[in-house]
Amino acid sequence: MATLLEGIESPEQLRNLSIPELEQLAAEIRERLITVLSSNGGHLGPNLGVVELTIAMHYVFRTPADSFLFDVSHQAYVHKLLTGRQDRFHTIRTPGGLNGFMLRTESPHDAYGAGHAGTALSAALGMAVARDQQGGNENIVAVAGDAAFTCGITYEALNNIAHHTRRLIVILNDNEWSIDKNVGAIASYLNRIVTSPQFDHLHERAGKFLKRVGGVGALRMARKAEEVAKGMLLPSVIFEELGLKYFGPIDGHDITSLIRTLEFLKRQDRPVLLHVLTQKGKGFEPAMEKQKKFHGLGPYDPETGETKPLGRRTYSEVFADTMVKLANLDSRVVAITAAMPNGTGLDRFQPHHPDKYFDVGIAEEHAVVFAAGLAAKGMKPFCAIYSTFLQRAFDPIVHDVCLQNLPVVFCIDRGGLSADDGATHHGLFDISYLRGIPNLVHMVPKDEDELADMLYTAAQWDGPIAVRFPRGLGPGTPVKDVPRAIAVGSAELLQHSDRDRVAIFALGALVPMAEEIARKLEGEGIGAAVINARFAKPLDVKMLEFFARSSEVILTLEDHVLRGGFGSAVLEELNNLGLSVPVVRVGWPDNFIEHGKVDLLRAKYGITADAAIERLRPYLAASEALPVAPSAGRIVPKQ
Fold first, then answer.
1. Disulfide engineering: 548 pairs with which of 8, 11, 421, 581, CB 3.0-4.6 Å?
2. Helix residue spans in 255-314 (DSSP H)
3. Residue 633 gets which letter from DSSP?
4. Spatial distance between the Cα atoms of 18 and 11, rounded to a whole number of angstroms
5. What H or E segment, with its residue span, contains residue 170?
6. What is the structure's pLDDT at 149?
7. 5-194+239-285, superfamily in CATH?
């Protein structure tokens, strides 16, 4: 027998359902989420928490005429299920399937694409002003988790909303969690509202009055009484000080209450903020017990929630464990995360050095300036931020850290693909956006042991320095008990012979590919040197010059965009040296790369050993041992 969910091809069909049927639909949605994500992975906890809220929103409003914006949009899976995509939901986060975030090109119901926190309110205000300018009357609804209110961009928007538009609905989805437990004054402030005994009593009485009397008039009367009392109990509700009429908090899992309240709010001719209380992971016991784990995860057992052990430490875990050693050795060492203690591994560091651990919330700019202040007073801050999120702190990196030549260490996690998350999370730009900044050193390790050595090197360095490393597992190289310093700007020669015709300069995660290329070339009678470049800045100029003069062609490999990346740096340095040896560069093209498995994406874009060899053939065609062969697969054009 078909389920209610299987019959939902558009949001209009929701409005034909009774409240009991909507509650049944909510249960079916939770079952679908748990089942599909057990195979595909994804953001399970956040989506389980917004099921009723999303149903109520689509019941009251009319997308795509009305516009929904979800902050980060990792909690938009339910929205996708209700907007004509339930028959494709099994493809989410798989190659060619639905994206794990809102995507304007995927559906007209996805009004605004996103993947980073703090953008929903600013974008919603822009859309509301555009509506006002064009004489429209549609509703703009922004849903932001309480964690987004630790992000400075959110407050910049709040400061402008009442001044620039007459109508906007903001829904504060308060579950006390982002990825980890929320921190800071705003989290405490929201908790005070929710836990105030007087406010709780007042709210309960208003709710009973509503149920007894019913109707819009009753809602208005209850609201008026609540507002008077609220003004006495909480005279400085911050949102009302900023010009948004505050409503709530209400139960974010009570469909009836949500529908009545949203119906009332959509008729308000003023900006409003609705505070809803939800439970992250609701409906799946493992997700409620382990909210951090189930924020976003890979495949799991749909019955128990158990995941398969990885068997060895990830790069993030090696980073965190090395940080413990560095803090043991040096009292100046401190660690900073921007609301990502679990993702960066610093939740492993915090129990060992709680007084040296700082979670500043979703505030990357603040994290970097905060680190600069620490460094200015003699501390050694290690700032752990994903590559894709560090982009947000570009100005403080330039102005506050590098201009003053302060010894801040940027620990750039997720350098390279964040495969299943897609374009919003791929870390493919950090070499380009950092290497043009004076004073900054940029390192990239080939394995876990070299990561530990680079962190130790960074601890000794008296200036800005970055260490870039990929997501997930490395090659499994054992990590020494005691790390050693690496000479800044020195590459590592991994193999070399007198008959080398090719010099392969590889950076970080693509060093194994360089070794594979060398083996295959050797099988065809062509010698190839393999160099672990280690530094995107400064380059090892002596090593580069030696091979530029002794080889027929240089091959560069990088898990990064080609434009402005490591290969570009090699070309620039060769130009400075006045050398014209051919350079073949392998890396990501000038596109935003879609989501998909790493191996499949690398094959599609020519970032493989075989594709690199095909790129080399024209430069070595004179050799009888390396005849020009038909093209095998897609070859990325030379950039």
1. 581
2. 255-265, 285-289
3. S
4. 14
5. strand 169-174
6. 84
7. Thiamin diphosphate (ThDP)-binding fold, Pyr/PP domains (3.40.50.970)
226, 364, 515, 558: which one is catalytic? 364
pLDDT at 235: 40
Looking at this protein, which amino acid is placed at residue 232? M
The residues pairing with 427 across neighbouring beta strands, listed in sequence order, are 416
- CATH H superfamily, domain 315-468: Thiamin diphosphate (ThDP)-binding fold, Pyr/PP domains (3.40.50.970)
Q: How far apart are CA 179 and CA 187, in angstroms?
A: 14
User: Strand 492-495 and strand 441-443: pairing?
Assistant: unpaired
Burial class (CB in 10 A: 0-12, 13-18, 19+), 590: exposed
Which residue positions in the chain have pLDDT lower than 70? 1, 176-236, 291-296, 622-639
Q: Which of 30, 32, 280, 356 is catalytic?
A: 280
Q: Measured in whole angstroms, how far is the alpha carbon of residue 620 from the centre of its chain?
A: 42
pTM exceeds 0.90, yes or no = no
The catalytic residue among 313, 356, 392, 414 is 392
Place of tokens 């596109």: 591
Q: Is 280 a catalytic residue?
A: yes
Which pLDDT score, from 0 to 100, does residue 295 have? 67
For residue 358, what are the contacts with CB-CB under 8 A and spacing of at least 6?
A: 334, 335, 336, 337, 370
